[in-house]
Write a structure and sequence with these properties.
alpha/beta; Aminopeptidase; Alpha-Beta Plaits; 2 domains; 4-stranded antiparallel sheet; two-stranded parallel sheet
Amino acid sequence: MDKANRIYKRIQSSRNEMIDMQMKLCSLPAISPSIGGEGEAKKAEVLLDFLKENGRIYGRGVDDNQQDMVASLYALKAFKTEEIIPSHDIGIALVADEEMGSNKGIKYVIDKFNPFRKQDLIIVPDAGNVEGTMIEVAEKSILWLKVKTLGNQTHGSTPEKGINSLKAASYLITELSQLYRLFGKKNPLFDPPISTFEPTKKETNILNINTIPGEDVFYMDCRILPIYNIKKIKDAIRKIAESVENRFKVKIILEDMQNNPASPPTPPDAPVVKALQKAIKEIYGVEGKLYGSGGLTLAAFLRKSQYQAACWSKTGDTAHQPNEYCVIEDMIGDAKVFANIFLQD
């Protein structure tokens, strides 16, 4: 039996063990301390216990895409168990804080240790599709805004004595839909192929029904095609906000919660792209195609540091949804894809 088949068979035999690892990790909450959680330390301890039996890996913790995190670990374990030396030196970075901006995760690792090399094949398993064909090479800019509207609180029976901040904020949300028209260009590399501008989180303004709120806060999540400058987006939002201020006699304060311009894309002919396309074809029998995404993955920070990174996984596309799940065969298949790359010359 050749090396590749030995590795694939070893990965297949780890099926139940991989399921147990997923269940163990999933049972441990990993909510950011900034929103009242205990962080990712408990998950990190489980991973460290596993890694102590599997050589030295540098990392800071774990992000939320467990399927291919586990797949990559068991791809490595197969090599160790079969006593096969891969064609490359292999490193796995287990980093936290991906959902909250990565200041304590990959950004910290790059700034503090910079363990990567320009020739490395860097794969981030944090984007993909159900077919396994999506190789993400570009991302949109991200702008998260906190929008505070200040009016004048009063009793619900005397609205003329106050200024209803909720009414003004609601009107502003409607007016901000103009952004889709003002910045309406398309790029078929991305899905969706447009910039998106959506109100999301809403803070509590008052606790009782019979009070006109004097302050209202909501948040915007903007995913912007790289062709547009974030400053121009903010200027347009400010102009729309000023028109609402004048109409309702309120004060509107805009605050950046996240401001990340798009990083340079990974070239279509980059070695990491070619290696992924070869492995995907070998394992899944499909052609890997290039895509752009609207999410901020760890690859964006790597690309900003001039590393050629690609995102890939074969996913059920249920991340951040109720009843999120991992297809077991995808987890095993993805481990084989990684193993295939480890064996490539």
